[in-house]
Amino acid sequence: MQVLVTGGAGFIGANFVQQTVRERPDVRVTVLDALTYAGDRSSLDAVADRVELVEGSITDAPLVDRLVGESDLVVHFAAESHNDNSLNDPSPFVQTNLVGTFTLLEAVRKHGVRFHHISTDEVYGDLPLDTPERFTPETPYNPSSPYSSTKAGSDLLVRAWVRSFGVQATISNCSNNYGPYQHIEKFIPRQVTNLIDGVRPRLYGAGLNVRDWIHVEDHNSAVWSIIEKGQVGETYLIGADGEASNLDVVRTLLEIFGRDADDFDHVTDRAGHDLRYAIDASRLRTELGWAPRYTDFREGLAATVDWYREHEAWWRGAKALTEAKYARSGQ
Ligand code: NAD
Ligand code: TDX
């Protein structure tokens, strides 16, 4: 099987490619990635001899048409993915997340190629802090940020191409991922690399916002379950019952680093900051028989800390620039 992975040099995509090459000798992988600030060729070093990396944009229709025409399956990870960046400049989010997804859909429609669209739980907006309520596939779309609204729009394009044109597509909406190769602009690797540098972690606002954490390998095993066993036209929510407040995550990291529990700073809150995300993944578990492997969040975090300690060369180059960007917004 020939698989085209868009965004395969980014965090989740690179983990997906590495896992796929390791576990599926029958699959040949081509990566299409624009290598933006978030993409890193070296994230595929371990599998470079088994993977073709094409540097280019998913908005480039002739290139997309050619690569899709050579594939049996497209797994679409490529996106502008950071909420804070989308508040500073939404324009690349509209281009990549909306126009890029549209370009891919037109190509899979023309060539009759199976498509899996990677999306986020943020399309559903947020939940109150103190309720047992969780997102389900029936929760109405209600995105808050330029990032999540462009992801919501891309999901709706996929649904329309399934219904109107019979495109063979599935969608997954996953909660917050953590693990190796995540860009250090994101919450967990930002705090981990701060702590490695002896800098105090930075919590937006009071730090009470809740995210539902899943290890990236569990996200990717769920994606393969959906590709192999999911029903075309359907949406699957991916989550591993990993709810934790940002404050809890920072306290756990401080403990792993042997630092005082109050050794952090509160900084300017994010505009429109979603309060809580929580996923009900029972459909994935019952219908497709999927289960996560990383069920101990502290253990997963400790392994992630070790990875960043051992791979300083991978992230060091981006640290000063990333922090300078945050400093400009008081974060
Ligand atoms: P990332 O920012 O780490 O990686 C995105 C990749 O896409 C990069 O390699 C980048 O170079 C590439 N890219 C960007 N614009 C492109 C373009 N125009 N053409 C081709 N490639 C382009 O993002 P991530 O965290 O790995 O997220 C991957 C996908 O998973 C996204 O669709 C995101 O919405 C979704 N998602 C992420 C999370 C999370 O917690 N990180 C959770 C749920 C869903
Ligand atoms: O320094 C920080 N301090 C802080 O308190 C940063 C960078 C973030 N935060 C907070 C904001 C969020 O409540 O931590 C939480 C997580 O922040 P991010 O890592 O930016 O993730 P989030 O905005 O929740 O979105 C992530 O999960 C869903 C991914 O970036 C998205 O791509 C995915 O769709």
UniProtKB/TrEMBL annotation:
The keyword NAD applies. PANTHER family: DTDP-D-GLUCOSE 4,6-DEHYDRATASE-RELATED. Its cofactor is NAD(+). GO terms for molecular function: dTDP-glucose 4,6-dehydratase activity. It catalyses: dTDP-alpha-D-glucose = dTDP-4-dehydro-6-deoxy-alpha-D-glucose + H2O. Keywords: Lyase, NAD. This is dTDP-glucose 4,6-dehydratase. It comes from Promicromonospora vindobonensis. The lineage of its organism: Bacteria, Bacillati, Actinomycetota, Actinomycetes, Micrococcales. The keyword Ion transport does not apply. Residues 4-302 form the NAD(P)-binding domain. CDD domains: dTDP_GD_SDR_e.
